[in-house]
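Handout, page 2. Input:
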Amino acid sequence: MGHEGPRFQLTDQAMVQAWLQIEVVVLQASFNLAWLMGLEHGTLHRAPQDAELTLRLHESLEAWAQVKGALGSRDFLVYLAGPLRGDGSPAAIRHNQGMMLRQARWAQSVLPMATLLVPHTNFAFLDESRDPGGRVRELALRSCEKVLERCDAMLLCGRELSPGMARELKLADRLRIPTLQVPGWDGPSGATAGEDEGAA
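Output:
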């Protein structure tokens, strides 16, 4: 007749393991959500960074909830605007095009009935990185404005407006096109004061 240890020790260990597994799942979900939204997340499991990421995820989800509340399940034509040129390098432009695709996927899941117009992809064939005179840039922005004129709503993707986004917002305001804003993505958009960039 051996001595049997108290059962609660095994239960406590099982409970700790279960909580650790839940924590890993929650962290992985946060990591995945941050990636989907284009937020930099670095290494998780560092309290200050985790807290900051949680606040930024909350801000993004609240903004998207407002978009869903405003546009809901309507069959709208929605224009997505966001920074494109960054520092004007091909790498910055490709980065912003890729991040806008993530935003568009998320927007489509939030607004399943909407038809999205994404100038980052519509005009991807234009090479603005080799346009020192700005002719291609101006052509792209004029084309974007023609498309925007036909839209029912505009979604600004970014905390700060690039010059191109500001130009699109000015047109949307003049035409009384409803405009909503979400935080957008992190990373090397390369926006600097006076630089011509936008959603084309």
